[in-house]
Amino acid sequence: MVEDVRKLPLSLRGLRDAVLTGDPGCLCDPELFTGPAGIEPEDEPAQDRAARIAVAREVCASCPVRLACLAYALRTRPAAGVWAGFTPDEIAALVAAANRPARPGRGTALRPASTGPAAVSQVA
User: Fold this and answer.
1) Burial call 37-63: b when 16+ CB within 10 Å, e when fewer
2) What is the per-residue DSSP string for 83-120?
3) Residue 7 has what DSSP assignment?
4) Rounded CA gap, 9 and 115, in Å?
5) What is the pLDDT of residues 60-70, one digit of tens each?
6) Where are the domains of the chain?
7) What is the pLDDT of residue 104?
8) Phi first, then psi: what are they for 111, rounded to 5°?
9) Neighbour tally for 90: CB within 10 Å
10) What is the mean pLDDT of residues 23-43?
11) I need a labelling partner for 40 at 20 to 30 A (CA). Which of 7, 49, 51, 93 fits?
């Protein structure tokens, strides 16, 4: 079990091997993580999909290779399935957040450039 991110393999092959040899919980029922065989993802009823993902997240929560699985998913950006408890949309959001600057630059909507000291309004 890899518990320290610094001990994760750096290569995709190394991450994949760490997941597959670490007794991942997803091997117990692959359809739980990928959806029912023979049904396109858009054809799975929304309630069924939500329930399946919730159960998959529970399995992932106690998985001994969750960290390696997440590292693999962040690098490969899967289009389907549940990876380390995250859906592809959630993984894409994590990647996007990691690629954003830590602080917005001056002159952006989030951090406007100051034009001088702020004026203090008087309350009458």
Assistant:
1) eeeeeeeeeeeebeebbeebeebbeeb
2) BTTB-HHHHHHHHHHHHS-SSPPTTBTTBPPP-SSPPP
3) G
4) 48
5) 999 999 999 99
6) 5-99
7) 63
8) -145, 80
9) 14
10) 89
11) 93
Task: Identify the three-state secondary structure at position 4.
Answer: coil
Q: Are 74 and 94 in contact (CB under 8 A)?
A: yes
Question: pTM, whole model, 2 decimals?
Answer: 0.72
The two three-digit tokens of residue 35, written as one number: 């959806």
pLDDT tens for each residue of 53-89? 999 999 999 999 999 999 999 999 999 999 999 999 9
Which residues partner with 111 through β-bridges?
A: 108
Structure tokens at 10: 């750096």
Higher per-residue confidence, 29 vs 1:
29
Q: How many CA atoms lie within 13 A of 16 on its CB side?
A: 5
